[in-house]
């Protein structure tokens, strides 16, 4: 209830789902076994797919370039293991679409040492060189967005980046990867921040952490290197604080104008695991081969935080950790914004932050929906201050244009808070996702007509 | 070997786990003490009236669902709320056949023709009561005294009036504090009002029990606190200003708050989610309209009570409040825009 909304250190509205992190947040990151075959789809990130530069039958070394960036908004892919390229063929992805992919069969008993590349020195490199280095390392937003990081870091002409915000919020229930990374990889994080400050020209960095990870905040505070302008800001726990807009408002009290990026208010936000990856890879000129993933949920036996090679098939992962016979739903990402997996033959990709396994009895969603009773719970939850009730009704009438023009549909970022609280169990986010897609399509068509 | 097929669903994959049905059930619970007090103070009369109103509402809801070949919606509790509220807003010795008609009208005209739960523009119980008021102006303003000695053993003659007949009233009939003040200039003590020692509609007499029900629902986040606060505050301020202006002519603001149906209306009727606005500012405006109108009708209108009409009027404009008063969307300037 918004009785006391005077708190400065936060954003408006939002929700408090059960955190469900206690089962994995004390478990140190463990190395996951290598699968016999790695399957790497090319379209792992937002933007153009990577372009394959190897051929079938070729032997590759761990860390070797397998595919180069397919354009500016794209990143290369590196071999997560040493092995032989068995096949290049279409592979399924989580979206249901097929994508070109590489089947890489691992050598059974090699040392799996990683190939070194051209190191980048944070003290002497120019911002452009750092951005290039980040792209060469194949780095995308590891929080789940999988947007190429070098594009995000590029400050547009005429804009200035004042503050770099490192996102250690991890507001999705169940997930504990960022938490463990902050506790275990402080050196990489601070090195990464050094690169990021240089690349963006920001004068200071703030690491935003929710108060349920006070130990991580204390840990990082203790190890801040001499002379690095970094501070740790602990924020009250609230979903969806990890969203860029909410985080900027919570830390700095500024609102990002509708339809704009954080740079509009002089801010660049980077996920903490992405930062650690930059700090780990750039000094060696290496490419990303693995990432930390929380595997949890009521259906998992060996819950934990694991470093897993990119391209590891999901089926292999689940077989290794052991899952309940009765699993009925598997999500990639958190329970609020993650995507349900329809097919276990997809692979772990760079954007996979968590794997959640639920059995039938853990799914509390009720199939029964009621009409909207205008209780206002969704209005009180929406962090963007939209009116999901009205939007939901309009969606039913397919009044998409009105949704966009009068009710700011396009500002909805699908956080799911409205659906989470709705007592009538109306699938609001599902409606909005669809409506947004239709509005975008109509706009594109309109543009085409104008251009034709 | 792992299963081949998985269920897929749209995010979010977890939910708060509170259902509309559960909220409605809690509203019923919050109303029960009011019902008990009503029976305690008005005896069998109130029991019969409340039961009949509820029975008629539920029956109508069930019948209409069957008629349109839909699954019955009786178990979402909303028809029970309508019935209880109707019963509580009627005079305790109101004829049962009229009560029954009211229950049918509330569901059929107040809710069903709009499309059922969630689509009604007005509070169904108030629609029913407004129709009854128009159809039976005498019966609905004939009050029954509270705490009669024989209230648990005898039922007033009027209650069992034959259908389509005008009721006969016993010699004793009470005046409500509001009508006593308005028409005879007699005032009632605050204590009597707060603890329901007075005459009035079956469920409106004990302000304290009503307020407790509201506090329960607000504490459980099942009711907007803004509506009752806005209604009571605006009524208090306006009647307070009048009282300061001339305390001979106008009753005290405390009397205004505690008497008549204001408490019941502010807590349980104006707060009907479906027929009230949705944004915080909209709720304030809506509540203030009800509070101010109630006092205006009470002081200057021909009736001694004005809560019902005020709420119905505010219900009617609530969709417009919603389309004019919107939240300021994150990252935008405030946009108040006529629809
Ligand atoms: S939470 Fe659901 S029932 Fe309540 S107003 Fe929003 S959409 Fe309607
Ligand atoms: S999904 Fe969209 S409408 Fe729903 S709460 Fe999040 S931002 Fe608001």
Automatic annotation (TrEMBL), chain A:
Gene3D superfamilies: Alpha-helical ferredoxin, NADH-ubiquinone oxidoreductase 51kDa subunit
Chief location: membrane
Cofactor requirements of the protein: [4Fe-4S] cluster
Membrane topology field: Peripheral membrane protein
GO molecular function terms noted in the UniProt entry: 4 iron, 4 sulfur cluster binding; electron transfer activity; metal ion binding
Keywords: 4Fe-4S, Cell membrane, Electron transport, Iron, Iron-sulfur, Membrane, Metal-binding, Repeat, Translocase, Transport
SUPFAM superfamilies linked: alpha-helical ferredoxin, Nqo1 FMN-binding domain-like
InterPro entries, sorted: 4Fe4S_Fe-S-bd, 4Fe4S_Fe_S_CS, Helical_ferredxn, Ion_transpt_RnfC/RsxC, Nuo51_FMN-bd, Nuo51_FMN-bd_sf, RnfC_N
Keyword 4Fe-4S: yes
Subcellular location field: Cell membrane
Keyword Repeat: yes
EC number: 7.-.-.-
Superkingdom in the source lineage: Bacteria
Cofactor note: Binds 2 [4Fe-4S] clusters per subunit.
4Fe-4S ferredoxin-type domain sequence ranges: 361-391, 403-432
Family according to the record: Belongs to the 4Fe4S bacterial-type ferredoxin family. RnfC subfamily.
Assembly information from the UniProt record: The complex is composed of six subunits: RnfA, RnfB, RnfC, RnfD, RnfE and RnfG.
Functional description taken from the UniProt entry: Part of a membrane-bound complex that couples electron transfer with translocation of ions across the membrane.
The protein, known as: Ion-translocating oxidoreductase complex subunit C
Organism: Seonamhaeicola sediminis
Name of the gene this protein is made from: rsxC
UniProtKB/TrEMBL annotation, chain B:
GO process annotations (BP): electron transport chain; transmembrane transport
Keyword Membrane recorded: yes
Cofactor(s), by name: FMN
UniProt keyword Transmembrane present: yes
GO annotation, cellular component aspect: plasma membrane
Superkingdom in the source lineage: Bacteria
Known EC number: 7.-.-.-
Pfam families named in the record: NQR2_RnfD_RnfE
Topology class, membrane: Multi-pass membrane protein
InterPro entries listed in its UniProt record: NqrB/RnfD, RnfD_bac
Segments traversing the membrane: 27-60, 96-114, 126-146, 194-218, 225-244, 250-271, 283-301
Compartmental location: Cell membrane
Modification FMN phosphoryl threonine, positions: 176
UniProt main location, coarse: membrane
Oligomeric and partner information: The complex is composed of six subunits: RnfA, RnfB, RnfC, RnfD, RnfE and RnfG.
NCBIfam families in the cross-refs: rnfD
Function: Part of a membrane-bound complex that couples electron transfer with translocation of ions across the membrane.
Family: Belongs to the NqrB/RnfD family.
UniProt name for this protein: Ion-translocating oxidoreductase complex subunit D
Species annotation: Seonamhaeicola sediminis
């Amino acid at each position: 209830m918004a009785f006391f909304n005077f708190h400065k250190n936060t954003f408006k509205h939002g929700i408090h789902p059960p955190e469900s992190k206690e089962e994995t947040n004390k478990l140190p990151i463990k190395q996951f076994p290598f699968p016999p075959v790695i399957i790497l789809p090319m379209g792992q990130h937002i933007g153009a797919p990577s372009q394959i530069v190897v051929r079938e039958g070729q032997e590759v070394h761990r860390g070797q370039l397998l595919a180069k960036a397919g354009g500016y908004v794209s990143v290369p892919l590196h071999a997560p293991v040493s092995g032989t390229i068995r096949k290049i063929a279409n592979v399924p992805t989580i979206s249901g679409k097929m994508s070109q992919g590489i089947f890489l069969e691992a050598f059974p008993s090699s040392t799996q040492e990683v190939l070194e590349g051209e190191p980048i020195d944070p003290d002497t490199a120019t911002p452009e060189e750092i951005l290039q280095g980040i792209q060469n390392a194949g780095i995308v937003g590891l929080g789940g967005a999988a947007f190429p990081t070098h594009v995000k870091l590029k400050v547009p002409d005429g804009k200035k980046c004042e503050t770099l915000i490192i996102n250690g919020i991890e507001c999705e229930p169940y997930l504990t990867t960022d938490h463990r990374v902050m506790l275990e990889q402080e050196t990489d994080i601070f090195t990464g921040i050094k690169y990021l400050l240089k690349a963006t020209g920001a004068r200071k960095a703030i690491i935003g952490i929710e108060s349920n990870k006070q130990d991580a905040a204390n840990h990082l505070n203790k190890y801040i290197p001499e002379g690095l302008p970094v501070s740790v800001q602990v924020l009250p726990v609230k979903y969806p604080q990890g969203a860029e807009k909410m985080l900027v408002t919570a830390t700095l009290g500024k609102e990002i104008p509708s339809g704009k990026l954080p740079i509009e208010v002089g801010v660049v936000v980077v996920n903490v695991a992405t930062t650690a990856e930059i700090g780990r890879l750039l000094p060696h000129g290496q490419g990303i081969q693995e990432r930390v993933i929380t595997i949890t949920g009521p259906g998992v036996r060996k819950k934990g935080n694991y470093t897993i090679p990119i391209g590891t098939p999901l089926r292999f992962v689940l077989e290794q950790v052991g899952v309940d016979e009765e699993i009925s739903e598997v999500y990639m990402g958190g329970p609020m914004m993650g995507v349900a997996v329809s097919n276990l033959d997809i692979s772990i990709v760079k954007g996979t932050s968590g794997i959640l396994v639920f059995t039938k009895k853990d799914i509390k969603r009720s199939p029964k929906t009621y009409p909207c009773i205008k209780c206002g719970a969704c209005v009180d939850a929406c962090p963007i201050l939209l009116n999901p009730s009205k939007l939901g009704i309009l969606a039913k009438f397919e009044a998409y244009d009105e949704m966009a023009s009068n009710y700011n549909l396009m500002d909805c970022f699908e956080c799911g808070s409205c659906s989470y609280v709705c007592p009538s169990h109306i699938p609001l986010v599902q409606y909005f996702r669809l409506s947004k897609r239709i509005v975008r399509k109509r706009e594109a068509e309109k543009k085409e007509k104008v251009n034709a | 070997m792992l299963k081949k097929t998985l269920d897929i669903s749209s995010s979010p994959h977890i939910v708060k786990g509170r259902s509309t049905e559960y909220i409605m059930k809690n509203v019923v619970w919050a109303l029960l003490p009011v019902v008990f007090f009503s029976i305690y103070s008005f005896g069998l009369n109130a029991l019969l009236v409340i039961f009949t109103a509820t029975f008629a509402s539920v029956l109508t809801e069930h019948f209409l669902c069957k008629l349109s070949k839909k699954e019955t919606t009786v178990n979402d509790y909303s028809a029970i709320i309508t019935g209880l509220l109707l019963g509580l807003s009627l005079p305790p010795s109101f004829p049962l056949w009229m009560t029954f008609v009211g229950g049918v009208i509330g569901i059929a005209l107040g809710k069903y023709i709009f499309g059922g739960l969630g689509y009604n523009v007005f509070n169904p119980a108030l629609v029913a009561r407004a129709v009854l008021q128009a159809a039976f102006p005498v019966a609905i303003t004939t009050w029954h005294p509270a705490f009669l000695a024989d209230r648990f053993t005898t039922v007033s003659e009027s209650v069992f009036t034959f259908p389509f007949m005008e009721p006969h009233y016993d010699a004793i009939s009470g005046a409500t504090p509001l009508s006593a003040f308005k028409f005879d200039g007699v005032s009632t003590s605050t204590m009597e009002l707060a603890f329901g020692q007075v005459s009035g509609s079956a469920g409106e007499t004990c302000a304290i029990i009503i307020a407790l029900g509201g506090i329960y629902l607000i504490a459980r986040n099942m009711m907007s606190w803004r509506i009752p606060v806005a209604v009571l505050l605006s009524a208090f301020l306006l009647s307070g200003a009048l009282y300061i202006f001339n305390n001979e002519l106008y009753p005290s603001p405390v009397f205004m708050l505690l008497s008549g149906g204001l408490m019941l209306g502010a807590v349980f009727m104006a707060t009907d989610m479906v027929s009230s606005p949705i944004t915080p500012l909209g709720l304030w405006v809506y509540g203030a309209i009800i509070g101010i109108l109630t006092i205006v009708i009470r002081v200057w209108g021909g009736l001694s009570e004005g809560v019902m009409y005020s709420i119905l009027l505010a219900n009617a404009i609530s969709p417009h409040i919603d389309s004019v008063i919107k939240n300021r969307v994150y990252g935008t300037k405030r946009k108040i825009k006529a629809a």
